[in-house]
Design a protein that fits this description.
10 helices; binds (6S)-5,6,7,8-tetrahydrofolate; TIM Barrel; single chain; about 45% helix; 8-stranded parallel barrel; cobalamin binding
């Protein structure tokens, strides 16, 4: 399971504040803590309010590089921010993300290739997030076809079916689990998948419980990666245990410690 830490996001008040005041130690701490807690990668998002997202992305990456060479997922809808992020973050980074429109794929797939980066493809296009399962599968197939056509290795591609909050789109939560299972029929080997897990609990009062319950269900439905809060220990323990029960790791009494130590 690819674990991507979500905490360096200007959506969070502490990060927004750190960006404003150039407080490097807050960013250092968030980077180190998430990796120690089991994140394989860190999602980096300059946030919704910044006046200069490129400069913010530069500052965040340079600050993170003072403490770790870990791979980074560059989370931005702006092409120039993504490209700058890939340049600064170096090999093994990830583009988060592209939509499934041809115009977007024609830019982002070659960009991923150029920087030897992984690529998240969202199953949405200009028209927005489709409700229909079949449309989601069609968009996933379209992303994969484009990557194959342009020689981007499919092991570097992750399809994101887009998790919506349970309090506004309840039926979509169950549907997304079906979609994860149906994705497996699209290609052989099946495509890798990723979700922004915390979306599911936005605006609810039981965030941690909802997040970890949904993560276990999604892992059982074949999910291969997730953008999560890795400092939520119960979430990480639930994920590790789900993978154990799905026979992905060998049982021993100390399987949680063993996983954490890799
Ligand atoms: N798919 C992909 N990338 C993504 C998402 C996705 N990146 C962003 C997001 N979704 C995943 N990351 C987060 C980060 C934070 C929160 C949710 C998802 C979150 N933040 C608090 C909130 O909104 O309540 C912020 C408030 C605070 O605590 O200060 O929930 O789906 N590819």
């Amino acid at each position: 399971m690819l674990v991507i830490g979500e905490l360096i996001n200007g959506m969070y008040q502490n990060v927004e504040q750190a960006i404003k005041t150039k407080n490097r130690s807050i960013i250092h701490k968030l980077a180190k803590e998430q990796l120690e807690a089991g994140a394989d990668m860190l999602d980096i998002n300059a946030g919704p309010h910044g006046a200069d997202p490129k400069e913010t992305m530069r500052w965040l990456i340079e600050t993170i590089r003072e403490v770790t060479p870990a791979p980074l997922a560059i989370d931005s809808t702006k092409l120039d921010v993504v490209e700058l992020g890939l340049k600064l973050a170096g090999e093994g980074s990830m583009i988060n993300s592209t939509k499934a429109d041809d115009e977007k794929l024609d830019i982002y797939v070659p960009l991923a290739k150029k920087y030897k980066a992984k690529l998240i493809g969202l199953t949405m296009d200009k028209k927005g997030v489709p409700r229909d399962k079949n449309v989601k599968c069609e968009l996933a197939a379209k992303i994969l076809a484009k990557c194959m056509e342009m020689d981007l290795p499919l092991e570097d591609v992750y399809i994101d079916p887009i998790v919506l909050p349970v309090n506004v789109a309840q039926a979509q939560c169950a549907e997304l689990l079906d979609v994860l299972r149906e994705f497996k029929l699209i290609s052989d080997p099946p495509p890798q998948t990723v979700v922004g897990l915390s979306n599911v609990s936005q605006g609810t009062k039981q965030r941690s419980l909802i997040n970890r319950t949904y993560l276990v269900m999604a892992v059982a439905s074949g999910l291969s990666g997730a953008i999560v809060d890795p400092l939520d220990k119960e979430l990480m323990d639930a994920m590790i245990t789900a993978e154990l029960l799905l026979n992905k790791n060998i049982y021993c009494d100390s399987y949680i410690d063993a996983y954490r130590k890799r």
